[in-house]
Each structure stands twice: as structure tokens, then as C-alpha cells.
């Protein structure tokens, strides 16, 4: 790594610059540490040593050898044609092991890392069932964020192209009246976030008594974001004899309780690999006041290796202001946060994915469920509220076998 990480042997030494990296220093214990750039944090205190870690050498994993090809699942001819069109022949591990259970009508617990193809693991068998019996309002897919819900909707539309199967996306930040109109037309699949789904239920617009398949995607993240009561309320309104598909990156005691109450004799498929954070070089950046933080950030971004950078801030206002400052300083930047409409967020995300801007400044919403390829660096301009949030943030880099880099601003010692 270009930055000198601090090991247990040298953490008691005086802080000193690492090479020619402005502001990047070794960690030195001291008082305080609960602020970032002079700003008092509102979340739990995270010791700076938690932000320092050398990426583990990645061992060569044998490629997964599926027991099926997609053609072995005997999908509807049009569905198989759409799969072929996307160039898919062999399923990923989560697809290979989950699809037979979903096709058989079993409840499924799928444990898989983000970016392993789990959307297709539930979307393909759902489309197969709908092709045989296209019941309206029979599928509900719940996701933690607008962006993930949008990604699921896009994949459903691509796989069901030309099959006269329709989905409706119901998320916050978009016109609710239009969503009400779409629901009244009777889609086959409803894809939404917990808050907007509950809002529509309270208005008596969304009724779930015809749901045959319920999908809870990124369940661990929905719990992290405080949606447990919304999820319970949604599940209670669905028929008891539904099929439930439950996908999560982890199984915690809280998730275990949900599983016991929501699923019936589920089949468990676990294809989790090592946490993404293990493939991320992590270090801290010391800075004093806000002006020094901004100057240090600009110095970092001026270096060639910072090719595609995700910068995290704490507040919606602060994120927008930081992005505007970078733009004025000649750094192509966009921002994504809760004050932007869904269409604005989609445009910002697309600009970043398509490399039209080099930097995206975001609140924690961008760490939840987004698949952004080739992020070279994650920079925590403001420290996260919890260590779990930190892990989600840095998980946007170091993917697909690459080593990522993460830097977190802390107060100068």
C-alpha cells in the first residue's frame, strides 16, 4: 500500500508523514479521537485503530463449479432466450444452489455477499412461475434502499422482456400518486422499500392478501437501518401460506428471530466468502480544522491512483456542500443523499458508474446495497456512526478479487 499502515509494534511511535502523502499519518494513541476534523460526532466512539488494517493477501480460490447450467432448469423458452441474450450460461453459486429450491416452492434462506448474483437467484424462478400462472399482485420484493430496489426492478424487466409481466417500483423520493396509479393497474410484481410500502398500506392502496411469494433482500441491512417494525407489519399482512425468500449477508441473533417467525421449514443456502473488508488496505488521515481537511482531501484526489473515489460525509447538507466545493476546485464530482429525488440520485449514480465524474460524495445511503464496480478508494471524510456502517462503507471497494483502499479522517493528535 502506498500509505504506511500502523502495526501493533509501531503504534506508540510519534506520528509522522508517510512518504509524500499529504496529511496521511501513522496512528498515535492520545486523548479524544471522537471527532473528525474538529466536528463532534453523534454516533458511538470508534477507536482510530479500528480504521487501520493491512489487506490480507488474497489466496487463489478455485472457481466455483456449478452443478447446473441455466438450460438445466427447464425455464420457459422466452425466459431462457432472455438469459441467453445476457450471455449467461453457468449460474453463480447462490443461483446454482437456490434456484432448484425456489422452483420447488420451498422457503429459502440465502446467505451471500453483495455482488454474487442473488437477484437472479430469486428473480428467475419467480418469472418462471409467473410465466405459467401470471397472477396479479402475487410477488412482493422488499429491499432496504431505493437504489437496490431500482436495480432489482431493472433486472426483473430485463429477464422478463417480451413476456407481458409487469412490475411496479414503490420507493420514496418519487411521485407517490404515480405509484398509486401503477398499483391500481395491477402489476404482477411489487418492488419497494419498507417506508414507502408501509405508507401505501396505511392509505389502503396496497393490499397484500394476494401475495404468493415474498422476498426480503439484504435483510441484515434493513435491520441495521431500523426497518424491523415495518418489516413485521408488512409480513403480517401477507398470507400465511406464502413462499418466503430471505437473503442476507449475515445471520445475527435478531435475524434468527425473524427467520423463526417468518419462514416455514426453510432450505438454507450459504455461499458467503471472506468479508470484503479483509481485501481493503485501511489507514487514517490526520487533519486539524475543516480547512485542513478540505486541503488534504484535494491533495489526495490530485494523485493519479485515486481513479474512482467514493467519499462519505455525515449529513445531506454537508455532502452536497463538499461535492460543490470539489467541483469548484476542478475535481469532477457528484453527490447522492436523501434530499435528492430518485431521478436525481439515479443520474448521479449513473454518472459515477459511467466514469463521467471521478468522485461521488455520499451519505451512508450509498453504502447500502449498491453495486458500484471498480471503486479504487473509499474516503471517510466524516467518520461513520457505527463500526458496522464503516464496514458497509469500505465494502464498496476491494471487490471482484481486487485490493481496495480506504482512508478515514481523524483529528490531528
List the helices and strands and how they pair.
Layout: E1 35-36, E2 39-40, H1 77-85, H2 93-103, E3 108-111, H3 118-132, E4 139-142, H4 146-159, E5 167-170, H5 176-184, E6 189-192, H6 194-202, E7 213-216, H7 219-224, H8 228-236, E8 243-248, H9 253-262, E9 267-270, E10 280-287, H10 290-301, E11 309-312, H11 316-328, E12 333-336, H12 342-353, E13 359-362, E14 377-380, H13 387-394, E15 404-411
Parallel strand pairs: 3-8, 3-9, 4-6, 4-7, 5-6, 7-8, 10-15, 11-13, 11-14, 12-13, 14-15
Antiparallel strand pairs: 1-2
And the CATH topology of the largest domain? Rossmann fold
**What is the H level of CATH, i.e. the homologous superfamily of the largest domain?**
P-loop containing nucleotide triphosphate hydrolases
The total count of strands amounts to: 15
CATH class value of the largest domain: Alpha Beta
Provide a count of the helices.
13
Strand order of the largest sheet: 5-6-4-7-8-3-9
Low-pLDDT stretches are: 1-40
Strand content range: 15-25%
Q: How many domains comprise the coordinates?
A: 2
Radius of gyration: 23 Å
Could you spell the SSE succession in H and E letters?
Answer: EEHHEHEHEHEHEHHEHEEHEHEHEEHE
Main sheet attributes: strand count, strand direction, barrel closure: 7 strands, parallel
Helix content: 25-40%
Overall average residue pLDDT: 85
Shape: globular
The helix-and-strand class reads alpha/beta
**Beginning-to-end CA distance, first to last residue:** 23 Å
